[in-house]
Amino acid sequence: MGLLPDEAKVLPPPGIVNRNSVWFGLCGWATAMLHNSLNRRPALKAGVHRQALFTTVGWFIGYHLTKYENYKYATLDRDMNEYMRLHPEQFPEKEPKTFAEIVEPFHPIR
Amino acid sequence: SPYGSLLSSLLFSLLLVFSRNSFIASKPDPSKPNMLRVGLAFGSTAVLWALLFKQHRTDVHEYKTRNGLE
């Protein structure tokens, strides 16, 4: 991969249908339809080859963008967990409190 | 010379392809699609989907091997 180092291959890959792919694919399709409209052609029925190509390009870019995003978040998580492991004094385990202990007494003013 | 006319016809066809002067320009005709361009568009669409599925397959395989799941 061009943008990703070798260690990124340990992460589970995104599905073919993923959030960024769908979004970029739709954006590509909208671009093709806008191109049709601006050239006074019927938006949906004209230039189907262009609509297909733009949607595909968007989908492709979205897939690789999702992979990159997953890697970036994984590195952030790893660094955060490593910091927490090296500085346990800053992250003490607190006993869970019930709401009865936290909530202030209620004095209605009617 | 025999090559003079060939050269001039080549230059004229280049002029046709790489210019838009008003003597030869015309409005794009939607009833006569440029089938080469259409074919290239659909062809590259197919190629991109094939590349995507291949990349996904490789990614899944790499993930499984590296995590000892297969």
From TrEMBL, chain A:
Keywords on record: Electron transport, Membrane, Mitochondrion, Mitochondrion inner membrane, Respiratory chain, Transmembrane, Transmembrane helix, Transport
Gene Ontology CC annotation, any one: mitochondrial inner membrane
Signal peptide: none
Alphabetized Pfam families for the sequence: NDUF_C2
One Gene Ontology biological process: mitochondrial electron transport, NADH to ubiquinone
Main location: mitochondrion
InterPro entries on file: NDUC2
Topology in membrane: Single-pass membrane protein
Localization, UniProt: Mitochondrion inner membrane
Membership in a protein family: Belongs to the complex I NDUFC2 subunit family.
PANTHER family according to UniProt: NADH DEHYDROGENASE [UBIQUINONE] 1 SUBUNIT C2-RELATED (PTHR13099:SF0), NADH-UBIQUINONE OXIDOREDUCTASE SUBUNIT B14.5B (PTHR13099)
Function description: Accessory subunit of the mitochondrial membrane respiratory chain NADH dehydrogenase (Complex I), that is believed not to be involved in catalysis. Complex I functions in the transfer of electrons from NADH to the respiratory chain. The immediate electron acceptor for the enzyme is believed to be ubiquinone.
Record protein name field: NADH dehydrogenase [ubiquinone] 1 subunit C2
Gene for this chain: LOC109051833
From TrEMBL, chain B:
InterPro entries, A to Z: NDUFC1
Signal peptide as annotated in the record: 1-26
Location within or outside the cell: Mitochondrion inner membrane
GO CC annotation, single: respiratory chain complex I
Keyword Transport part of the UniProt annotation: yes
Pfam family, one: NADH_dh_m_C1
Bilayer-spanning residue ranges: 35-53
Record's keyword terms, sorted: Electron transport, Membrane, Mitochondrion, Mitochondrion inner membrane, Respiratory chain, Signal, Transit peptide, Transmembrane, Transmembrane helix, Transport
Complex and partners: Complex I is composed of 45 different subunits.
Role of this protein: Accessory subunit of the mitochondrial membrane respiratory chain NADH dehydrogenase (Complex I), that is believed not to be involved in catalysis. Complex I functions in the transfer of electrons from NADH to the respiratory chain. The immediate electron acceptor for the enzyme is believed to be ubiquinone.
Family stated for the protein in its record: Belongs to the complex I NDUFC1 subunit family.
Protein name per its UniProtKB record: NADH dehydrogenase [ubiquinone] 1 subunit C1, mitochondrial
